[in-house]
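Reading is simple: the token line describes the chain's fold. The lines below illustrate.

. . .
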Amino acid sequence: MTAAALVVGGVSVATWAATSSTPTPEPVPATATSAPPEPTPTPAPTASTPSPSATPTSTPSSTSTASTVTVPWAMGATIHLASGTIDMAEGRRVTGFAPLASGGAVVATDAGSPGDDRWRIVDADGDVLDDLGRVMRVQASRDGRLLSRQDAVDGPVTALDERGRRLGSRDLEGAVVDVADGWIWATSQTGTKGWEVATGEVRTLDVRLFAVSADGRRGAGVQRDPDGPTRGCWLLVDLTKRSAPVLLERCDEENPEGFVPTEFSDDGRLLLGHGDGDGGFYSRLVVARVSDGRVVVGRTTHGDQADGWSWALAPDGNTILFSRNLSQPRHPANRNDLARCTLELACTRVADRVHLEGGDVTRPWYVVGQPLLPPP
């Protein structure tokens, strides 16, 4: 089985070749799961509520307005952005996306057939500006102005603008992990290379980065401690200096989550990522403070409540929109909902729970994207 990834703000959304079927919204069960009790579902500021319909591409209900969407999300063929909705072709399912400064989005969709995932750049009306085809990896900057595409694992990287115009190409000898402040960053088993698209400058670092702050000043990544257990370290580095000195490092017993940071918050205060106990077809959310490395959300404090597929911080930096795995047991992952959660992982459901088909090989119906940074 093969997979491809749409990476948005450091969050990699794997798109697997699995049989697609129509999800049916389910009522909240009378008995509680391992997640905390949830209030009766009501519209929330971070997302709009889709109509409770068996059709995944249905039109959102009248309570869904552009002004309520602070974190973009998709369900079925419909993408909900702050500026409105984008409807992809009927019968196609959004498996990953990122909003663009043009008002459109770069979108991965499938039509329910194995190997049929395609990537497209679309405008605000859903019209295709560039059909990227079946590429391995797509990455978008948080301001929605610079994209990268990679057609093969560790293959050459092509830079694109928000309408798909080609800006250049480089072989960075790694997989693209982030696009920030005009730079494209790719990581391999031995380190990281950064490419400033406008100037052609290339930087080589020994550390394996997986996230870069939107202003390009900080990077976060992982490395193995040769003198410690296999869990290794996560670390924060200063990219304003050529040597990229380590600012903070948490290893082994100080890193019980096996944290892999993949995203900085807009204000640089928090790091989001996943732990090393992922379930294969879903992940475990981890949130850590940049100031001292303390984990505020993770398996050690929240158990399987942190299990899900995609997530993003709201612009206020205090709430997370979370596509959750609600299955009991968590594997096979066959229950999915969309929730707004605090940094204590107290969650309120904002879109109906749905059943996932395909046995152990599943992917979520709810897909969370990163909110666009405001223009400078």
Notes: The mean pLDDT is 82.
